[in-house]
Amino acid sequence: MQYYLITKWFGSFLLDSQKNIVEQFLFSKDEQKLMNKIEIIRDHRVLNEEKKLADKHNPIVIEKRLQSLGSFQINNSFFSTIQINSESFGFSKELLHSILLKISKEQVDSSLSSPDYQVIQQVNALDELQHIANVLSERLAAWNMYISDEDNQKPIVTVLQQVEKNQELLKQQIETDVKNLAPNMTELIGPMIAARLLSHAGSLKKLAMLPASSIQLLGAEKALFRFKKQGGRPPKHGVIFQHPSIGKAPFRLRGKHARLLSAKLCIAAKADMFTKRFIASDLKKELEENLKNK
Amino acid sequence: MVLKNNDQLIRKRNKLFTRNPEQCNGISVYGEQLKTINGSQYRSWNPYRSKLAAALLKKKFTLSLPENSTVLYLGAATGTTVSHLSDLISNGTIYAVEHSPISMKKLLSVVEPRQNIIPLFEDANHPDRYFSIVPQVDLVYQDISQRNQSDIFIRNMNMYLKPGGTGIIMVKARSIDVSLPPKKAYRIVEHELRDQDVTIHQSFSLSPFEKDHAAFVLQKQG
Fold this sequence. Notes:
- The complex is a heterodimer.
- Chain A folds into two domains: 3-112, 2-Layer Sandwich (Nucleotidyltransferase, domain 5), CATH 3.30.420.220; 115-293, Orthogonal Bundle (Serum Albumin, Chain A, Domain 1).
- Helix content of chain A is 61%, strand content 7%.
- Chain A is built from 13 helices and five strands.
- Chain A has helices at residues 31-42, 48-54, 93-112, 115-143, 150-181, 183-189, 191-201, 204-209, 212-217, 221-230, 244-247, 254-275, 280-292, and strands at 3-8, 11-16, 21-26, 60-61, 71-72.
- In chain A, the strands form two sheets. A three-stranded antiparallel β-sheet of chain A has the order 1-2-3, covered by helices on one side. A two-stranded parallel ribbon of chain A has the order 4-5.
- Chain A is elongated.
- Chain A starts with a strand and ends with a helix.
- In chain B, helix 4 (149-160) links the parallel strand 10 and strand 11.
- The longest helix of chain B is centred in the C-terminal third of the chain and has 13 residues, at 182-194.
- The mean pLDDT of chain B is 91.
- Chain B has six helices and 13 strands.
- Chain B is of the alpha/beta class.
- Chain B has a single domain, classed as Vaccinia Virus protein VP39 (Rossmann fold, 3-Layer(aba) Sandwich), CATH 3.40.50.150.
- Chain B has a seven-stranded mixed β-sheet with strand order 9-8-7-10-11-13-12, with helices on both faces. In chain B, strands 2-3-5-4 form a four-stranded antiparallel β-sheet.
- Classes of the chains: A mainly alpha, B alpha/beta.
- Chain A binds chain B through residues 7-9, 38, 41-42, 44, 62-65, 74-75, 79-80, 82-85, 93-94, 96-97, 100-101, 103-105, 107-108, 111-112, 117, 225, 228-229, and chain B through 93, 101-102, 104-105, 108, 111-112, 115-121, 126, 128-129, 131-133, 135-136, 158-163, 178-179.
């Protein structure tokens, strides 16, 4: 006899191939207890109820989360013919609405408070401060073409001084934060370029999942898409150009150096995200050797 | 497209209005106009902001969406279209999937007074992760600007759409491949959809409301 294991938000069910419910565990209607169950499911863990139901039956499951309990078949058409209605078990839609509203709020807040999101906001804020400083100093330069009254300029001068002072402060903040978040990448290319790479990728996890060739071109999107649309020459480097080993290299070596650097960065990002081991000193040694062997 | 929803949807000249439910009276979700028609409050539906409104204004196509339909909405973003859809199916349920935390934050404030929207902070690339929440649905609607958007749509449709149910997919040509002319990008999507067990009822471009976007309306066999 072939069995199927289905878990809905209000309970776990074991069905036979005639679509009859053989065995079931309904969850508690208490909001807090139900929330705990759904949290476990959303963490991709297996519930105790599911273990009990699956025991010795080796059921077919549709969720990858449950693959240890039976055979995982995502395209099995049996599951699309099953409707287990929550209301017939006494669980209302209002309950689901209020639970998921709470869970989603918690998850959104935790991902917005993550350190990589904070670093990205700081980098963007720094760019904006830079922009403001440029605009204001341009205005002052234009104003000072003819000797003018300093008192008239005072409002702008004080803002400009403030902006410049706070830029330094923000930069220091970023440097310490990035060093904590991504020590390997910071060691390889310095905190500011590491922070910029993060802001282009969107998060540390996304950066760690990128191939080296994508890291090489982060920040050169405009040039890359121009190349894809209209042809011409593809870009060799994005924000990593700011690193002296590329920016100060002879023109014909820049592409090669960009490839070598981004390959090592790719490894460093993975170490920062997943293993959290410090391997940057080895990477740096290898990189320097590779750069010497032209 | 023509929606068959008695007085939930009103069309006046070239403008669409959906009826604001009582608990949301006075709330404008994205700065849209509120208007009282026949004694109840309606919200104007901006076709430049919502691709479903654009599709409704572009073509004559009958989509039967009863008040108690269930909808799986992929790529809910900040809830512009979702809020109007929630007006239309007042007794139904919308499962709104969104992966970006910033969009989700705004979406949650739309969802709070609307009992018929269930928010899901998930990645539509992995449809099995919300199997415990989402049942078999009458309509799968997708508006995701991803290169593999047709693949995402197909996997969700196979898992959640009832046989005979409707699928609507809004294709952004520029995210399929920037280097291709839009028509070729649409053809790629169309080929992928034709390999499935579906009939494509209609496909049309959404200009002038959206540039380089097309809508596909299809039905699952069975």
